[in-house]
Design brief:
Chain B: It is found in: Cell membrane. Chain A is built from 13 helices and two strands; from the N terminus they run H-H-H-H-H-H-E-E-H-H-H-H-H-H-H. Chain A has 323 residues and is an all-alpha fold. In chain A, a hairpin with a 3-residue loop joins strand 1 (163-167) and strand 2 (171-174). In chain B, helix 4 (120-134) packs across helix 5 (150-163). The chains are: A mainly alpha (323), B alpha/beta (502).
Chain lengths: 323, 502
């Protein structure tokens, strides 16, 4: 029977991380040609640390997208958490840990609300999280009377700006990079677990999943909570790295979605790996670094992201059988 | 009497052949309709009626053969093309826009225009005129279609076709969703349209109305035309024989001996919901109970009620003599009930996941996350082998497998749970003969191992070959039961209510 089965020319598993690794490789070669010193350990480590928040957001967004939904609220959630943390800590080092816990719990809570509204009130997640985006932006402006108050403590900021010094060969290894590596391992393990397989099955065919006993709404809600948690951690890293402002997280939701799509994850769900999504984020950041080296203004970023999303969707639509 | 090729015929199909994925669903079918004739098309589910109607109305292009309409060989590019040529189709599922008015629906795509804008007054006037010409009760032109009942929507569909000057109207089971008095009104309309010289192709399962309305009847079976007869020269019994006359094939596993039957697994008393009424049912361990009936008779609704997809809203369900409430598929699974949907692609598989992930889906959904994972995977690989899944490995995406192998994976998914009651809805639809035999073996083995099996099938030889007894459904009720060894005609007669009608 083997001979009657459809065979593909390349052993590339659709949704696997091979294509994104290839793109990443090409970009690295281009960088090496144009700006060789960028690949020196010091600047590379710094680049990876800088990219940590978007990589985390891409992982969070992955859980939601692979289950068939969207989370547009993460950018403004990051902003909200940074502004709230600054006001609550107000420079007092003793408040660092409680506020950090609050940041994570409240971010998870926002994800929970997104999930419950989407799953139980059957509001399309695009709308739910767009509403949440607007609510968070408005609430933060309201609460801080138009300009951020207070400041983050140094203890809070060290996660985003400090590093393990004097590592052989590598030099400075940012904490942010270590955190990302740890969470990447956890995310990968999670996606190999029963929950992970069920999550992808829900995105592939929610009806079939439900008829196999899967609690579809609950599963998707957990995905939103994971996305919220990722935004919480990203807020801690970003607040530390770039400080407090209303722009801290603006536009990150679209960067995250672009990264996920670039990483081979199907919009609409059911296909793609979390490693691919995170590599997609890294590739996206490298692409912008490269454009910078070629003197392209950073203001084209949204246009480039939009083009990537359209291109990736067009390619996957052309490749998948009509249905 | 018109014969194919008559100058007088409005529609003339010759040797129309159509295959899907290598399966021939229409095989050299001839059919003709004269102006002012009602030509009924009958046959079992899957005989090819709907495909034939779609070819005539431009939904599909024939692989071979010719469609001659009004004396001209036609090759329609789509339903709109056929509609403009004068062929209208009234679908089983009505295809109207619920949020638009009656007038807007009727004139969709050819709105009267005045000075570049839609002329609403003209549109309303034309709509009223149309309904007047149909002699049908008044349907308000400004009502939203979504607010109308099924019968009125059907009138709108018909008016929509007539607005395009349809000379041939295809009605695909138009009375399936109508109450008796509404069906009467439709019959009157059909006669009126006939008297206006319109040709009608009338697909129906209700033999009584076929005899009351039609001038000629064509019987389709397994994609072929068995016969075309003038209605006045045939009888219900003759028709039924034409529709089912086949030999039983010998590849069904042996039935249960009466002595093999175990205790009662599942009983339903007075079960009902929106689609079902007064369901009394009793399934014993070790038996395969077949469910016959037409599409829409409540067969699938019964399985879906038992599995908690659309639960019973009245009545009592008992599993092994304990009352249970099955409010969701998950609850049903917890009670030991499994369900294999007829819609494998839409409700069975997650197409882009691996064979193994698909097979493990139900176990994962129910099971604890970490307990015995490795053992479960090993056991599943064994099960997949046991049901003889042919794949390039359990990591292969299931969409690359044949329908039969996909179905075996779905079976393995449920076998792993050790269900005590298992509901099959068309378990062999769209799969090849070899895989069918494998499915039959699994079904019988499940029963032998002590499960109670309910098996819905539109394939009569299969139903008769597999079942220890057969319940037949009609219009949401259990119309009756026939024992093993009954004939196809017995089942069809019960399913169509022909016993009452003749």
């Amino acid at each position: 029977m083997q001979d009657t089965l459809p065979r593909r020319a390349l052993p590339v598993r659709a949704g696997g991380p091979l294509p994104i690794l290839a793109i990443l490789g090409v970009l690295l070669v281009l960088v090496a040609i144009r700006q060789p010193d960028f690949l020196a350990p010091a600047s590379l480590m710094s680049f990876l640390g800088r990219s940590a928040p978007i990589i985390l957001l891409a992982a969070g967004q992955y859980f939601v997208i692979v289950s068939g939904e969207f989370d547009l609220s993460v950018g403004s959630l990051v902003t909200a958490e940074v502004v709230i943390a600054a006001r609550l800590i107000d420079g007092d080092p003793d408040r660092t840990w409680p506020v950090m816990a609050l940041v994570l719990v409240s971010a998870a809570f926002v994800g929970l609300v997104n999930g419950l509204i989407t799953s139980w009130l059957r509001v399309p997640s695009f709308i739910t999280t767009l509403g949440m985006l607007l609510i968070l932006v408005g609430a933060v402006y309201l609460w801080s009377d138009g300009s951020p108050k207070g400041e983050l403590s140094e203890q809070f900021r060290r996660f985003g700006r400090r590093a393990v010094e004097d590592v052989p060969v590598l030099g400075r290894v940012p904490y942010a990079l270590l955190i990302v590596l740890l969470l990447a391992v956890l995310a990968t393990v999670l996606m190999r677990s029963d929950f992970g397989r069920i999550l992808v099955a829900v995105g592939d065919n929610p009806r079939a999943a439900e008829l196999s006993g899967v609690r579809v709404g609950r599963t998707r809600t957990i995905a939103f909570v994971l996305s919220g948690c990722a935004a919480g951690v990203a807020a801690i890293l970003l607040g530390g790295y770039s400080g407090v402002s209303f722009q801290a997280g603006s536009g990150l939701e679209f960067s995250a979605i672009t990264a996920v799509v670039l990483g081979g994850v199907a919009l609409g769900g059911g296909r793609g790996s979390v490693a691919g999504a995170m590599l997609g984020a890294l590739t996206l950041e490298l692409l912008f670094a490269l454009m910078n080296f070629f003197g392209v203004s950073g203001t084209v970023r949204p246009a480039v992201q939009g083009a990537i999303i359209l291109l990736a969707v067009a390619v996957s639509a052309a490749r998948s059988p009509s249905r | 009497m018109t014969t194919p090729g008559d100058v007088g015929s409005l529609l003339d199909l010759r040797a129309v052949t159509k295959s899907f994925l290598g399966v021939r669903v229409l095989d050299r079918v001839d059919l003709d309709v004269a102006p002012g004739e009602v030509h009924a098309v009958v046959g079992e589910n899957g005989a090819g009626k709907s495909t034939l109607m779609k070819i005539i109305s431009g939904g599909y292009a024939p692989d071979e053969g010719t469609v001659v309409f009004a004396g001209e060989a036609r090759r329609f590019r789509g339903p709109r093309d056929a509609g403009r040529a004068g062929i209208g189709i009234i679908h089983q599922e009505l295809a109207l826009l619920p949020d638009r008015t009656v007038a807007e629906n009727i004139h969709l795509g050819h709105e009267p225009v005045r000075r570049g804008l839609v002329d609403r007054r003209e549109m309303r006037a034309r709509t009223s005129a149309l309904f007047a010409s149909m002699g049908a009760g008044p349907v308000p032109a400004d009502a939203l279609v979504g607010d109308l009942g099924v019968a009125q929507r059907q009138l709108v569909e018909i008016a929509k076709a007539l607005a395009l000057d349809a000379r041939l109207l295809i009605m695909d089971e138009p009375t399936a969703a109508l109450a008796d008095h509404e069906a009467e009104l439709l019959h009157a309309l059909v006669r009126r349209l006939r008297s206006q010289g319109i040709g009608l192709l009338y697909v129906s399962h209700r033999l009584a109305e076929v005899f009351a309305l039609s001038d000629r009847i064509t019987v389709l079976k397994d994609g072929r035309r068995v016969t075309t007869v003038p209605t006045a020269q045939t009888t219900t019994n003759q028709l039924v024989r034409h529709m089912v006359g086949r030999d039983l094939s010998g590849y069904y596993p042996g039935r249960a001996d009466p002595g093999d039957l175990g205790p009662v697994r599942l009983t339903v008393q007075g079960g009902g919901n929106a689609k079902l009424r007064g369901i009394d049912l009793r399934l014993r361990a070790g038996e395969v109970v077949g469910v016959g009936g037409l599409q829409g008779s409540g067969r699938s609704a019964l399985a879906r009620a038992l599995f908690g997809v659309t639960p019973f809203t009245s009545g009592v369900v008992e599993l092994e003599n304990r009352p249970i409430r099955v409010a969701s598929p998950r609850a049903a699974m917890r009670a030991g009930i499994a369900y294999v949907s007829e819609d494998r692609k839409g409700e069975g598989i997650t197409a882009r996941q691996s064979v193994l992930d698909n097979a493990l889906l139900a176990g994962r959904a129910l099971g604890g996350a970490w307990t015995g994972r490795a053992a479960r995977v090993t056991r599943m690989r064994g099960l997949l082998d046991a049901v003889d899944v042919r794949s390039a490995g359990t990591d292969q995406e299931i969409r690359f497998l044949s329908g039969g192998n996909q179905q075996k994976v779905v079976l393995a998914r449920w076998l792993a749970l050790g269900p005590r009651v298992i509901l099959f809805d068309e378990p062999t639809r769209g799969i090849d003969v070899g895989a069918k035999a494998a499915v039959y073996d699994v079904v019988r083995r499940l029963a032998r191992d002590g499960a109670a099996v309910l098996m819905i099938s539109s394939d009569l030889p299969e139903l008769l070959g597999m079942s220890d007894r057969i319940i037949v459904m009609r219009e949401g009720r259990i119309a009756g039961q026939v024992p093993a060894g009954a004939s196809e005609a017995d089942v069809v007669a019960l399913a169509m209510g022909a016993v009452a009608a003749t």
